[in-house]
Each structure stands twice: as C-alpha cells, then as structure tokens.
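Question (not urgent): is this output format expected?
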Amino acid sequence: MQSDLKCIPCIFRQVLAAVERVKAPQESKLAAFHEAARLVPRLDMRRPPSVNSHVVLKKVNHVLGCADPYSREKKHYNALALRLLPRLRRLAEKSSDPLRAAVKIAAAGNVIDLGINPVFDVEATIDEVMRDGFARDHFQAFRRELARAKQVLYLLDNAGEIVFDMVLLERLGGREVTAVVNSGPIINDATLEDARQVGLAKLVRVMASGSDTIGKLPAAGSAELQRAFGGADLIIAKGHGNYENLEDTGANVFFLLRAKCDVVAASLGVRVGQTVFVRRGLGSDRS
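Got this back:
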C-alpha cells in the first residue's frame, strides 16, 4: 500500500503525540519537530504509510532521548485488558459460534491504537463489534482455510489489544500457532515485555520479529520470521500497520482491523470507524 498526501499530517500528529508524552527540555521537543520537518519532504510516497511513519518516529524518539514514549500506557492497557479478559472469554463461550465471536472480540481490541486514534471507548467498541459485526466479512473463507491449516502465523499489533487476541488464539488449538510481537518499541506496538505481562506464551509460541517496524515487515525482520511467514498455511494480521505493509502480498493473509483513517478506509472500501475481516492473496476477496 502506498502513502497518500493525507498521511503527512498524520505523521506530524504522531510526532506531537510522542513529544507530549516525554519529559524533555522545550528545545529538545522543538528539535524533534524540526527533524520531522526535515525528513518528511524526503519520504518515498511509494512506500506504505507505516514505513514512512517509522522513519520519522525513530528519529524523533532519538532526538527526545526516549526509546519508548508509550511505555507507561502500554502497561496500563495490558492491565485494563486483563481485567476484561474473563468477560471476553464468556462472550465467546456463550456464543452460538464461539470461533466467530472470538474473531469479533479480537477485532474490537484493535481500537486500542495510540498512534492513529488516541481517543476511544473500549467497552463501547466491544458492544458495537459484537452487535454489528464486519463491514467486509470473509469469515467463512477463514473457517475453511483454518480447517485445513497446520501452521498459523498471527501477527500481533498493539499492547492491550493482544489480550483480546488471546481469546481467538485459544480457539486455534490443534495447530502449530506462532504469535509475533516486535523486537523493539514503536508507538504502542506490543513487544516481548507486553507478551510476558499478559501471559501470552502460556497459550502459544511467541516470536520476536527481529525489528521495531510499525507492523511486521518480513523483509526487515529476522530469518526466523521470514521462514515462518513463508511456511505458514494461514496468516492472521492485526491492525493498520500490518495491513499497510502486507495488503498486496500473495500470501494467504486475513486482515483483522478497524479502519481509523480515510486512506486505509478507502483502500478497504469501507467508512472510517468500520471493522473488517478481509482476505487478501490467493484469489483475494473470496468469501
């Protein structure tokens, strides 16, 4: 997915969000904006928005002297989601179709995105997604593919959100499942530290990506990630970053996300705020 001119103000909003979270001298914060302003005109708009945002934000964090401006909030949302976990599990268990309910629950967690959509209501989103479902829905194709899949790769997105993913991961038993987190911090993307906090490794094998990109980029990641990506029968990719990076891949990928900006919404053919479970690759858009 290529970047759009609308992505540029979004990058500066992300810069502002990082600056506001860091205790640093005013001159350092101003220098961070100057550095962002220097980098933005040099960005390659043929690259995904996630890649261009990463270039700017890593430099901004370096100028600010803070590798992880979102550290405290990631812990907060992990803890908040863990408090919700018993309720989320009950929602799946009591459903007439627990697998479909678990997919909806995982999707609802994608609202926890401090980079794109810093104001959200987790409880209201759970109710909305469970009631309304998906604006684009390839669940039946997913069920068929899952039935014959032996190796499943689950590309995680944000801290807090990964607890919602655990409800779906619990429904993927009987398969070799690998969940992928970032090796380093960027915005509120989940890392191994977050996986440990929520107990993710008790459910499935957890792999660090080998990079700190926004979303998972196999080419930028470890050889282990590249092998896992190439060997998976089925890939579940959560969130904007993974969609932006991988939407034109030929792999068997099911994207699960909430469209939070005009650019991604237009690419998906939905409205901002709608949730999708959409397949790309291997015949794309088959239901």
